[in-house]
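Continuing the series of single-chain predictions for the mutant panel. This is the parent chain; the variants come on the following pages.
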Amino acid sequence: MTKEIADVVIVGAGPAGLTAGIALTQLGHEVVIVDSQAEGANTSRAAVVHPRTLELLEPYGVTAALVGRGVHTPTFTIRDRDRLLMAVPFDELPTAYPYTLMISQADTEKFLLDRLTELGGKVNRPATVTGVDQDSDLVTATLADGDRIRARYLLGADGMHSLVREHAGIGFTGGTYAESFILADVRVSGGVPAEEVILYFSPAGLVVVAPLPDGMYRIVATVDEAPHEPDAAFVQRLLDERGPQARPAVVEEVVWGSRFRVHHRIADTFRRGRILLAGDAGHVHSPAGGQGMNLGIEDAVTAAETLSRVLAGEPERLLDEHAATRRRTAETVVATASQLTELATASARIRPVRNTAMRLAGAAPAVRRRLAWRLSGLDRR
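Parent structure:
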C-alpha cells in the first residue's frame, strides 16, 4: 500500500531522528518517523550533552528535562594518572549552560520521545526500510511489509550502517581504529572526582571517567580486544593501569557494559536530491571529546529548520548550503577527536614530551578557553 502522507519521512529514531521529528512537527509539517528497532532497544552509548546542544534544543521544549536529570560538570580535565596536564573550564563560557551535562543516551531519547509525543508525533516501529527511490517530485521509502511511504523529502538518521546512505549511492570515506572500545556504567569508590569529566592518557590507551546520575560513572576505554560484556575485574584492571594512583578508584559494580569498534568516516555528501543525512549516517569518529551525539543533534536541528524553509517555498539551494556546511563541520569535529585519540595513546617514548607540551599549553588561559569553545560546540554558533 502506498501512503502519500508526509512532507518528510525520517528513517531512524535515535537522538538525531527524534530531534528532527520534534523540530519539523513543531514547525508545522507532516512527518513520518520509522525505526527498525523496538522501543528501548538502543544501547546507551552517548552520555555527554554539550552547551551548544542544550541551546539548540531549548526552543523545542527538551532542554529543561535534560538539565533537570543530568549531572552538571563544569570542568573537563586531561590527566596522566595523577598528574594534571590541562583543565578546560566550561563554567566561564557565555551560555546559560556553562557545563558538560552527563546523562545516559537512554534518558536523552526518553525525553526526546516524550516531547515528540506531546506534539502529537509518534515513531512507527519496528518498521524496516528495505528500499529508497526518488524522482523529481517525491521520495519513496519501501518497508519490509511492502508498504510504501512517499514524501517530499527523506532524512536518513539510521546510523553508521545507513541503508538510506547506501541506496542514495553516497560513499562513506575513512577508516577504522585498530583498537576496540569498551563502555561501562559502573559504581565506584575512591579517587574519582564527582565534578569533572576526565580523559586519562596512558601508553596502554585512553580511558574516560565521567559522572552520571544516580551515583554512577561512565567508563570509556580503548583496548586491543574488548570482551563482549566487560565485568568488574576487567574494568578494575583498566583503571588500575590508566587511572588515578595516589587514591585508586575501586569498581564496586558494573551496571551495564558493552564493546564496539570505532570508525572515522564522513559521508561524501550530506544531500543527494531529496535525501539528506544526519547523525551517524553522515559521520562517525572516536568518542574522545564526546562529540558524536551532539553533532548528530545539531545536524538534525539545522536540517529540520532548512527543510522547513524550503517546504515553505524558499529555494532548494538552501539544502545544498546546509549539506556543505554540515560536511565541513563534521570534518573539523572528526579531526579534533582523532587528534585527542592520538595524543592519548602516544607511546612511552613520546609521552614526556607530550606531557610537557600540554602542561605549557594548559597554563595559557587563551588555550584553555579555545578548547572549551570547541568542545562545547559554541564555536559553531
